[in-house]
Specification:
Elements (H helix, E strand, L loop, with lengths): L3 E7 L4 H17 L3 E6 L11 E4 L20 E11 L9 E3 L6 E3 L11 H17 L3 E3 L6 E3 L9 E11 L6 H11 L3 E7 L1
The structure holds zinc ion.
Length: about 200
């Protein structure tokens, strides 16, 4: 099951803090035996990094249930840099966007009428997200209340997240709640968990 992933996205870290924080998280996971410090290109599908850390002897402590032998955990990729992260099977748009000011949800993909993003609805978000990736700041206007808010304050639903640091666990079974809580505490930030298939 090498092309399935479990992912943790840090929703709050800045581009400048992401690298040092990534280093500390790798140190912690390696010291805990969840990963090794050895890297591999095998079974890696992350889009912006070529190598991931080989699982360590204690990898099973990070997952909810390690008894299903069909799961063979693969590398853990550390993705540093402002980017959007999508779960599921690689859609690159959000399903919806909820305004941080007025809480109105703008529909981007009108399931089940459509399985594709409405380009007119998505474009202002895409523009803001591109600005954020390039400069660290980007805004999108709300069609309902007219307020422009930072794209990182919008809520894009469970399968789409913006963040400057993400961890892709390739081929790992679903991560355990205790591990996730510990992971979030060590990041010190809000996170989004995603899973999907490349
Ligand atoms: Zn609004």
């Amino acid at each position: 099951m090498g092309d399935f992933f479990e992912r943790i996205v840090d929703l709050e870290v800045t581009g400048e803090e992401a690298g040092p924080l990534a280093g500390r998280m790798v140190d912690w996971m390696a010291d805990a035996g969840l990963i090794t410090r050895e890297t591999t290109r095998d079974a890696m599908y992350s889009l912006s990094v070529d190598v991931g850390y080989v699982p360590g002897p204690g990898w099973a402590r990070a997952v909810a249930d390690s008894s299903d032998a069909s799961w063979i955990p693969g590398p853990v990729a550390v993705v540093v840099g402002r980017d959007h992260h999508v779960g599921g099977q690689g859609e690159s748009e959000a399903d919806s966007a909820t305004c941080p000011r007025c809480a109105t949800t703008t529909v981007i993909i009108d399931y089940p009428e459509s399985w594709e993003a409405d380009p007119e609805a998505w474009q202002p978000f895409l523009d803001g997200i591109e600005d954020w990736k390039e400069t660290g700041t980007g805004v999108a206007p709300c069609p309902a209340c007219g307020a422009s808010s930072p794209v990182t304050d919008w809520e894009f639903g469970p399968g789409f997240a913006l963040g400057a640091l993400a961890f892709d666990f390739w081929g790992w079974p679903p991560l355990g709640t205790r591990f996730l809580a510990d992971f979030r505490r060590r990041l010190g930030h809000r996170t989004q968990e995603q899973s999907g298939k490349f």
